[in-house]
Amino acid sequence: MTAESILSPEIKRVLITGGAGFIGGCLVRRLLRNTDVDVFNLDKIGYASDLSSIENISVSNRHHLLRVDLKDAVETAKALEISNPDLVMHLAAESHVDRSIDSPIGFLESNIFGTYNLLEAVRSHWDNLSPERKKRFRFHHISTDEVFGSLGSKGRFNEKSQYDPRSPYSATKASSDHLVNAWHHTFGLPVVLTNCSNNFGPWQFPEKLIPVVILKAVNLQPIPIYGDGLNVRDWLYVEDHVDALLLVANKGQVGQNYCVGGYGERTNKLVVENICNLLDKYRHSSAPHDRLITYVKDRPGHDQRYAIDSTRITSELGWEPKYNFEEGLEKTIIWYLNNLEWCAKVRENANYYGRRIGTVGL
Ligand code: NAD
Ligand code: DAU
Question: Which of 146, 177, 239, 273 does the annotation list as catalytic?
């Protein structure tokens, strides 16, 4: 059963927040390509946003951009009126840990107050739905494994893990999870939550590890590995995350959270070495790329290890990742090599050219 085939036919209007970002964009494209729903894309169009991946899709008359900042309660409420959704999938957030170290306030505004404004607007919308639409309405909150803190060498996060966020980013995401759960328990809002591990794939703004390393290597610049490079992340190809999101939005139990991970644990050092090896294959003339690897001062408060136990979403909903890490990485590298102009464009729009960020306190 594919994720698309289980989109209930009654779902005609979907509000995606953060649909101009990396994961939201992948979700919007999937909905436009593989379903006939109307997609309302609420995004403030921040530094990491880009719509070119969506504009290329010919059925984009079903894509409706709502340029709204969730900080603005009035505009957020208007967006709910305009979109009149059967399903809300909330991905909008400030998402980069390093930026949250340099300047946490925007994370509080978007991730906490933004989620609060959205929940209030959604609650009012849901209160006024017909009994039929009310029954099938869902609010899906998209969150991260980072809310559970940092693991030692053993064990995996699951749905029962304690919250223990340790960066300004993860603290604001944890707060938003708590708000969503509170709106369910107090007001009865029908919510589902997902907590996913590190995503990678095409169209990711080049500030996170994998695209940073690709672009540094392509430009023959030093490749920065924080600390000793032995921190571990559990990598998941973005299309697999989107499969999981659609399954949970459609079939997940109300009030439940689902952990999503690809059993793709790798040290950062290994990820960087894999990228260098693949670039040696595709850019043979500048090999070996691993000569560019440079160990730099660690990220303040750097979480040691994340890993996810995906048993619940697999056993309850039948989700399994389709891509292994190596396949996904090769596809990603080929995509970046073919889209260096896009990288230059989004870097210029954001006035961000790969400088080190998140070093406050070092
Ligand atoms: P991203 O930074 O690429 O995109 C986020 C989008 O949200 C941007 O387009 C931005 O403009 C928008 N946004 C931010 N604040 C907003 C506001 N106040 N009002 C309206 N729009 C706003 O992020 P991403 O990597 O696509 O992550 C999407 C979601 O998934 C986030 O909630 C993140 O916490 C979560 N998540 C990400 C990962 C990952 O590895 N990238 C893993 C697990 C969960
Ligand atoms: O776990 C899910 C989270 O994954 C998401 O919630 C976040 O939105 C997403 O940004 C990501 O957070 P991380 O901090 O794990 O991702 P990032 O790509 O920034 O870093 C991955 C690892 O690589 C981390 O251990 C820090 C390290 N790193 C990162 C950069 C940018 C480096 O060694 N060098 C770098 O230049």
Answer: 146
Q: Where in the chain are the domains?
A: 10-200+235-263+306-323
Residue pair 225/276 in contact by the 8 Å Cβ criterion: no
Ligand nearest to the CA of 297: 2
Residue 97 beta carbon below 6 angstroms from any ligand 2 atom: yes
Taking the centre of ligand 1 as the mean of its atom positions, its distance from the CA of residue 263, in whole angstroms, is 22
Asked whether the beta carbons of 170 and 146 are under 8 A apart, the reply is yes
Pairing of strands 257-260, 191-196: parallel
Ligand 1 pocket, CB under 6 A:
18, 20-24, 43-46, 48-49, 69-71, 91-95, 110, 114, 142, 144, 173, 196, 198-199, 205
Q: What CATH code would you report for 10-200+235-263+306-323?
A: 3.40.50.720
User: CA torsion sign, 24 to 69 to 303 to 150?
Assistant: negative
Instruction: Provide φ and ψ at 71, rounded to 5°.
Output: -65, -25
- Relative to the alpha carbon of 238, which ligand is closest? 1
Per-residue pLDDT of the chain (362 residues; tens, 9 = 90+): 444 556 789 999 999 999 999 999 999 999 999 999 999 999 999 999 999 999 877 666 899 999 999 999 999 999 999 999 999 999 999 999 999 999 999 999 999 999 999 999 999 999 999 999 999 999 999 999 999 999 999 999 999 999 999 999 999 999 999 999 999 999 999 999 999 999 999 999 999 999 999 999 999 999 999 999 999 999 999 999 999 999 999 999 999 999 999 899 999 999 999 999 999 999 999 999 999 999 999 999 999 999 999 999 999 999 999 999 999 999 999 999 999 999 999 999 999 999 999 988 55
Structure tokens at 102: 């340099």
